Structures are given as C-alpha cells and as structure tokens.
Amino acid sequence: MESKPLDSTTSLQIKYCRILCIFFMCMVHVPPGLDLIDNPPLYLDAIETVIGDVFGRASVAALSFISGFLIVYNFIANDWLTTIRKRFVALVVPMAFWNLAIIVVGLMILKVTGASTSVVEKLEGLELYEIVLFRIFTVDYGGATESLNFLRDIFMCVVLSPAIIWLAKRLSWLLIPGLLIVDSFISFQPLVMRGMILVFFSFGVVYSLKFDSLSQVNKLKIPALIGSLIVIALEFAFKYTELSSSQLYFYEIFKRVSIGTLAILCAYFLANTVKSGFIHSIDRSTYFLFLAHNVFFLVCWGAWQLLFSQSVEFPYVFFYLSLTAVWFVIGFYLRTILNFFPRPIQQLVTGKAYRNRS
C-alpha cells in the first residue's frame, strides 16, 4: 500500500484533536454523573447538555474517524498479526488493568466511607469469572470503567480493519451508507457494540484512502459551524419535549458529523497558531490521562462526599468544572514519572513504553 507520510500540520492537528476530544470524554465522567441525577440544578443541566450530550458523544466519533484514518498508514509498516499484537497491548491490556484498579478503589471507598458507588453495585450477584470477563475485559461492554468500553470497540475495529479497507477500496464512499443501513436495521453486535464507532472508523479509512491529509475536512468551516449551532439549539429544545435525541438515528449522525468536524477544525486552528513543542509531551500523556481519569475522579469524589455529601448543589459546580483540568495537570506529571519505570509496567499501566528506565 503506497501513501505519502503525514505532513507536519496534519500530524500536529491530530495531536490537538486527540487532546480536545479526550478532555471532553473525561469531563463527561465527572462523578456522580449528572445524567443519573433527578432534577439537577438548571445551570448544571445546561452545562451537562453541552458537554455530555453534544461534545462528549461527538468526541467519540472524531476519535473513531482519526483512528480509521491512521490505521491505513499503520498497514504501510505492519502486517495484520503485528498490528493485532501491538493494539492488544496498547488497548486491551491497559483497559483491563484500569478496570481492575477502579474496582479496587470502589471497594476501598465503600470500606472507608460506607458509601457505595456504581462500580461496586455492578459487581453484585456476579461470579468471579463473570467479573473478569464482563467488568475487567469488557466482553459485553459492561466494563467497570464505562468510558473504557470505547477501547474494546476500537480494538475490534482494528481486528476488522483489513476487511474494512478491502470494502473501502471497492465501494469507496458507498461503504458508509451501507454500514449505516446495517447499523440501523441489523446491528454489528457482538463484534462491535456501538455501531457508530465502526461507522466513523470506516469513514476515516475511506477518507484516508482518498486523501493524504485532513485538508479536505479543513474546508468545512462554515457547514461545521452552522451544523454545530443547530445541534446545540436542538439539544436544548429536546429538554422541553418528550423526544430524546437518541431516538432520532439520523439526527445522531448529523450531531456527530457536525461536532466531530468542529473538533477537527479547532485542532487545525490550534495547529496553525500554537506550535509549541510542549504539545508533543502532552499528546504522549493523553492516552494515560484517559485510561486513569475515572480512578482519579472516583478518589476525588470519595473525598468530596466526606466534606459535602452527595449533593450537587453549590459548590459542586466548582468540582464539576475544575476536576478534569486538575487531572490533566496531575496526570501529565504522573505519566512523566512513569517513563522511568520498567517497560512491562509502563505497558501494563499506559499501553506503551516511551523510554527505558535510566
């Protein structure tokens, strides 16, 4: 498979896009989860609508697209079996480790504070082998750390990628509506539990076979901005109707395309205005930040409950808005420290070893 290497702007743009998307994906999971709270304060409900229902969900689509875009370049240097081995170490191994870690933390919080968490409640009635399969290895998409379920589906997309590339070469853009029809009327389960992830991963594959950079996406400034404004307006409108956006399949596609494109465009703006070498160090830490954020959040939530109980009234808003940013600062330095650990530990905890122990 012949292709030019990624140009420097596209490479930097992808790094910014990963950072932006993972920031919002982490923010969606600030405990206790506003979507689970009955009658939250109006201002918090509005914040959660924009961050969770709009940017959080669309970030998954954008990252899936980027993963599909990059997998084509991966096969220039690696065969399928090598790719599976590397992605298993990078995706499944740390996913299992952090699922186990959050179970341990949840049990410790229960013992210290007496307050149960959703992590502990998910273990009730399960045998040991069921905990290993379903809560640690996420076989049924019910992992102890909900956000890490995404990694399970991305890994399966990688497994299926030779078939996706084969179809993309023959069907071109027609592959995407074909996959949408399958997802809408049949389903990709149990191979891929969230069909949208496979659809946008495949979208990235088709795009990558057509273009060597993200330049074509960068031309969609006006449509992406208009589409994003429409999405935000509709999300608030849904609050006053009996409709849920999740019931409107094609609207969900429109939302992910619009906001996902906006995220890629924001990354393009940053790539052309903020070319600090520091961004490369942040990007190397981003995956660890995503893997470990739920454990950090759960510990902080346990401490918060000791001081303020489980109330989401003021001053909870400061906890909600600041926790992810605080974690990005702390997590960045933790990842830097991990670089000095032995390679097997780095791979277990972060999926990749950047530097041997000195």
Automatic annotation (TrEMBL):
Pfam families assigned: Acyl_transf_3
Positions of the Acyltransferase domain: 14-331
Keyword line: Membrane, Transmembrane, Transmembrane helix
Positions of transmembrane segments: 16-34, 54-76, 88-110, 188-210, 222-241, 253-274, 286-304, 316-334
Record InterPro entries: Acyl_transf_3_dom
Descriptive protein name: Acyltransferase 3 domain-containing protein
